[in-house]
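Before we proceed, please read the two lines closing this message. Tell me what the token row says about the fold.
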Amino acid sequence: MKRFKCIVSYDGSNYIGWQSQNKNNSIQEIIEGVIKRVSNEEVNAVAAGRTDAKVHAYGQVFHFDTTFYLDANRWRMAINGYLPKDIFLRSVEEVDDNFHARFSVKEKQYDYLINLGEYDVCNVNYMYQCRHKLDIEKMKEASLYLIGVHDFSSFCANSIEKFPNQVREVKEIRFTVEKNTLRLSYIGKGFLRYMVRMLTATLIEVGRGRLEPVQVKEMLEARSKDVCRLNAEPQGLYLMRIDYDTK
């Protein structure tokens, strides 16, 4: 049995997300189906984490185990040969059994793209079309309250009953303006469901002047599922990279 680590990019516009839901339209199901077509084996593509419907990825990572012999480069060529045009395997490498796509993660980066200019029909599936002027400096001020180790219960969709530990570390939130695009980069080891989108939606409200920066601190400290009903649109979100411990 051999284990292979794969980095895959995909346009999530036409999919229900990464995770298989028995609807035959997830990234996972398509990839597993292609591997079975090549090897005639049932495999489980284990990802670093799920992405939701319409969310994109440049650097999603998954691993799979197989007894079918191909070297890593031939696996990459074979799988890409059958994948649709909106899914692409960027790399494949053989790894030992100690590697786990989910449990070996050291750091992840998610980016959220916001169009600050005129409504752009060509990018409507790839960034949030913001119709309001944003005060980016106030957004930066508010983001400082989110840096560090915190209980993010107020900013995620995970239930307390199923996921009692909602403490996560946000190492950095970067703001980059490129022409009319605002890019928010979130860096940390792991993120809860909808966490990045809910944080982004809250920062947008600050940018619009509908919240003061200090109110973000108050929302965070409330640790309540009732204080944030905001969730930024999924098409602006990208899983950019995942780094692993090299031990």
